[in-house]
Specification:
The chain is of the alpha+beta class and about 270 residues long. It has 2 domains: about 1-110 and about 255-274, Alpha-Beta Plaits (2-Layer Sandwich); about 115-250, Alpha-Beta Plaits (2-Layer Sandwich). Helix content is about 30%, strand content about 30%. The chain is built from 7 helices and 16 strands. The strands form 4 sheets. Strands 1, 3, 6, 7, 8 and 16 form a 6-stranded antiparallel β-sheet that branches. Strands 11-14-9-15 form a 4-stranded antiparallel β-sheet. Helix 2 packs across helix 7 (about 265-274).
Length: about 270
């Protein structure tokens, strides 16, 4: 299930770094731990976007000038989502970089029928190599046109689906169709314009800072519907729970498929009672 969390921006003009996933990941983990639910202490089957709003670029990063800022948050577990939202909306405000955000409301993005959907875009960078301490391998560039790129994503997806404990061994064995094909025209245009679709990003894991390579480009994904649904809700590649690998359907406006979040009034009521 994917939700759009809407915040009121208290201080217009404030900024965050261009890539601020690590700041969001720290706040999100703090909220999860602060709730004290041991069941979700190490839960990592969730994914999130960067902050969305009206922005301007400076040397400092992204300055936000809209009245409201949106965060797309997703998980395969509705109980976890309720828990997370309760922790978030119990706070008067939350600081991300220099932004002071007041949680206002939440909407559900209706899940499309992914059986016949193959074309996707990246909302946040895809990471395909896990970093190792004192190693630069995670910064190595692997062309998305190589089989290795798709194979690594297949292996990480199957491992995560296995760890979720929601699929049988027979089901996992049957999910042998998996091929990610980049939009070669997009890659060509990016190269011709001397822009980048693969960059180095900071990542903090167990209090250790790593540098990893992330990729952002449109692609076609050939896979079973259940696999695409898992990726749609839990992210693609490594470190999805740290804000990497969020994808969406190409040529689609997710804001047009939102509905009220079921149970949000109950969440607010329970917060008021406490």
């Amino acid at each position: 299930m994917r939700v759009r969390i809407i915040f009121i921006l208290k201080n217009k003009g404030a900024f965050v770094p261009f890539h601020h996933q690590y700041l969001l990941a720290q706040q999100i983990k703090g909220l999860i731990l602060n709730g004290g639910n041991e069941e979700f202490r190490d839960f990592n089957f969730y994914n999130f976007s960067g902050l969305k709003g009206q922005t301007k670029i400076s040397r400092n990063g992204l300055h936000f000038f809209s009245n409201r800022v949106t965060l797309v948050f997703s998980s395969s577990n509705k109980e976890f989502l309720d828990y997370f939202l309760k922790q978030l909306f119990s706070l008067p405000n939350i600081d991300i970089g220099n932004l002071v955000l007041i949680p206002e409301s939440v909407e559900t993005e209706e899940t499309p029928d992914l059986k016949n959907v193959d074309k996707f875009i990246c909302i946040s960078p895809i990471v395909i190599i896990k970093p190792k301490f004192n190693s630069s391998d995670s910064k190595r560039f692997i062309s998305p046109e190589l089989d290795e790129f798709s194979d690594r994503l297949y292996e990480s997806t199957m491992l995560r689906m296995q760890n979720l404990l929601a699929f049988t061994e027979e089901q996992l064995a049957s999910y042998n169709k998996f091929q990610l094909v980049p939009d070669v025209n997009y890659l060509r245009k990016i190269k011709e314009s001397q822009k980048k679709f693969a960059r180095i990003y900071p990542l903090y894991d167990q209090d250790v800072k790593y540098e990893i390579r992330g990729y952002t480009f449109p692609f076609t994904l050939y896979a079973e519907a259940e696999v695409k649904e898992f990726i749609f809700h839990c992210g693609l590649g490594e470190f999805a729970h740290k804000g990497f690998g969020m994808i969406d359907i190409a040529n689609s406006d997710p804001a047009q498929r939102t509905i009220p979040y079921k149970g949000f009034e109950e969440i607010k009521s329970s917060i008021s009672e406490n």
